[in-house]
């Protein structure tokens, strides 16, 4: 490999790493949104609290994630409002499905259902940039949110407080797992040029 080829390879690696580095701090949207919901709504112990808490958390998370997307972002209203509505619906369905229990298994199910709804709403916003590939996003978000609750529960966070979302440790895991999105958006932008 000559110097010119090595240089081009290094530039490509850095350009792919940059969107991931911009995305990783979006983990902060989870505890920030959860804290806002906890202050305004309280614990997720009924349908109204689940829907309202999910909406508040989702709006905060959606705004933070939107900033982390950079480049060829989806429509901000679709992304932010979609994330809020998706989490309101997902948390309502997830909490009801597990009868508001906070065991590891229950929270993994709740996380998967919440993530599926959020991912579906975000996929609508991503369709103009990613086309059919956006249909993969709900499954990715569902799996990563299930993992987020598993990590949060496993490390001993007081999940019995019935938070809207997992804690920072779970959020870091989710941000890392979902960092494929800014890479996909960057590649779509490069193809469009």
- The share of residues in helices is over 70%
Q: On the 0-100 scale, what is the average pLDDT?
A: 91
Query: How many domain units?
Result: 1
Question: pLDDT below 50 for ≥5 consecutive residues: which ranges?
Answer: none
Quaternary organisation of the protein chains: single chain
Q: Sheet with the most strands?
A: none
Count of helix runs: 8
CA distance, first residue to last residue: 28 Å
Task: Give the number of DSSP strands.
Answer: 0
What Rg is obtained from the alpha carbons, in whole angstroms? Answer: 17 Å
How would you describe the overall organization of this protein?
The chain has 193 residues and is mainly alpha-helical. It is built from eight helices and no strands. The longest helix is centred in the middle third of the chain and has 27 residues, at 104-130. The two termini are 28 Å apart.
Question: In terms of topology, how is this protein built?
Answer:
Elements: H1 3-23, H2 29-40, H3 47-69, H4 76-97, H5 104-130, H6 137-154, H7 168-177, H8 180-192
């Amino acid at each position: 490999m000559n110097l010119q080829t090595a240089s081009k390879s290094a530039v490509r690696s850095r350009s792919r790493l940059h969107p991931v580095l911009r995305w990783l701090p979006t983990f902060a949207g989870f505890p920030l949104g959860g804290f806002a919901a906890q202050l305004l709504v309280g614990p997720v112990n009924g349908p109204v609290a689940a829907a309202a808490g999910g909406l508040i958390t989702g709006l905060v998370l959606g705004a933070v994630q939107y900033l982390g997307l950079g480049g060829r972002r989806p429509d901000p209203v679709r992304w932010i409002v979609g994330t809020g509505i998706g989490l309101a619906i997902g948390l309502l369905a997830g909490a009801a499905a597990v009868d508001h229990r906070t065991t590891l298994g229950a929270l993994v199910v709740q996380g998967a259902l919440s993530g599926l709804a959020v991912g579906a709403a975000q996929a609508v916003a991503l369709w103009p940039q990613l086309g059919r590939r956006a249909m993969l996003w709900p499954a990715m978000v569902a799996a990563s949110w299930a993992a987020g609750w598993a990590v949060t529960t496993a490390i001993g966070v007081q999940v019995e407080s019935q938070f809207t979302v997992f804690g920072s440790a779970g959020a870091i895991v989710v941000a890392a797992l979902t960092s494929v999105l800014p890479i996909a958006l960057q590649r779509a932008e490069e193809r469009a040029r």
